[in-house]
Design goal:
This protein is mostly helical. The chain is built from 7 helices and no strands. The protein starts with a helix and ends with a helix.
Length: 137
């Protein structure tokens, strides 16, 4: 009887693992990421983005963003290969065509592998938006 119980428990464990993997995969399988309409019109309050501000933003990027987005923002950081979705290339037309408000909203709220960066101050997040703009091809 103990052998049967062990087999049943093992089978249940395997089923739970498979279900967990399927659920996790489904959570990662997401369509196009769009910010809500109201985010589109939100304006960046950072009007001065000179070398000092850019350097400060670069430090935040190096600490928080480089593992996934890479040192030049192309989505090729060392952790990106292990993630189930391709990381955004900040220099791409697709990212650069988004409004500042859309980028800020995505950065603030996150999705999937992209964490919500509300731990960064609002000023830091807006400076990151300006930094992303400065990477335009």
């Amino acid at each position: 009887m103990n052998v049967h119980w062990s087999l049943a428990r093992s089978a249940a464990g395997v089923l739970a693992l498979v279900a967990g993997v399927a659920f996790t995969s489904a959570a990662w399988a997401q369509g196009e990421w769009k910010a809500p309409a109201e985010a589109k019109s939100v304006k960046n309050p950072i009007t001065k983005f000179d070398a000092k501000e850019k350097n400060e933003a670069k430090k935040v990027v190096e600490t928080n963003c480089v593992p996934c987005h890479g040192p030049s923002g192309k989505g090729d950081g060392p952790a990106a290969a292990a993630l189930p979705t391709k990381q955004a290339d900040w220099t791409s037309e697709k990212v650069q065509k988004q409004t500042d408000g859309e980028i800020f909203w995505k950065m603030s709220n996150g999705r999937g592998a992209m964490p919500p960066w509300k731990s960064l101050s609002e000023k830091e997040r807006w400076e990151l938006v300006s930094y992303i703009r400065a990477l335009k091809k």
